From TrEMBL:
It comes from the Bacteria. Its EC number is 1.6.5.-. It comes from Longivirga aurantiaca. Keywords: Oxidoreductase. It is an enzyme of class 1 (oxidoreductase). PANTHER family: FAD-DEPENDENT PYRIDINE NUCLEOTIDE-DISULPHIDE OXIDOREDUCTASE, PTHR43755. This is NAD(P)/FAD-dependent oxidoreductase. Coiled coil: none annotated. GO terms for molecular function: oxidoreductase activity. Residues 1-289 form the FAD/NAD(P)-binding domain. InterPro entries: FAD/NAD-bd_sf, FAD/NAD-binding_dom, SQRD.
Amino acid sequence: MQILILGAGFGGLELASRLSEELGDAVDVVLVDKGDGFVFGFSKLDVMFGRVSPEHVVHRFADIAKPGVTFVQAEVTGIDPVARRVTTTVGELVGDVLVVALGADLHPELTPGLLEGGHEFYTVAGAFAVADVLRTFEGGRVVVGVTSTPFKCPPAPSETTLMVHDLLEARGLLEVSSVELVLPLPVPIPPSPQASTTILETFAERGIAFRGGTLVTALDPERKVALLSDGTELPYDLFLGVPVHRAPAVVVEAGLTEDGWIPVDALTLETRYPDVYAVGDVTSVGTPKAGVFAEGQADIVASAIIARVRGGDAAEYDGHGICYMEFGHQQIAMVDVYFQKGVTPHGDLIGPSTDLMAEKSHFGTSRVRRWFGREWYAVDEPGTPPR
């Protein structure tokens, strides 16, 4: 059986690894991605805030050496979901099972003025470039703002805001600076009232302003103001933006999407096409667009393929995910949430504390060990202050 996986993010890497570990050479897995390496979302922040170099956080797909798995570096240019046939820049591929895990594409150019007057920090290139900006920033009005919904990793803008505050504090620039977060959500993490309350209390303690239920619709680079969806303007000296998210054009052109994203069965991750699945940010399954949810969804698809090969029952998706969030001041918290079908999303907060530093480090190292077969540490001391 040939399994064709499009995209080597959290979902694609986890699916390929599970199939290799449990089925080995019993299946042929082809993993396709246009990039040459993978970067954890939290690693982008580590680079942004001067903890590590870019070279330290890029995990090369060439290091994947798993039985039954072949990596193909190519851009997907066409998808035929009926025939499960894919065209790429290096040729055509066909699978008995097709799994679309291409994520969400980011479009900073769709927000007027963002490229000219601000900085996006959600792409790998954008985050790495912001490291140079922050290194020389001498203080002033900092605005972290989201420009559209949905967006990946809902806690990340709050986390970034706290890390900016830490950086200004470490440099003695708080007296000449202010930090504000503009978020379309009414509270930082709606499924977890405890997490939202703790974040907002931390903001208040540190003098960070929070403006919820609002989007940044444009920047005016000449006047250095952000234009908000509520009609107000917000002046800034440094703007860090979360750009517009869209499903990849090749997915839309294939007719896989409805309302912008791929609809799937909430329990099996199957699309409306036989033997075609979708996982992660490219779907509208109802969970946040975050790597840990893509990983959990990949496990469900792996379960279905394993059951098909060996017999037995496949697992059903429970919508569970965890997220490690930096609170600054060398504190890390863990948000534990569920987005189950037919159940109101709910979650808890563990921490913040220094005790969770080791858990966050293990989260990254365990996956690098499984996916790439080597040892790696995100930073020598997770949770250390930005510099």
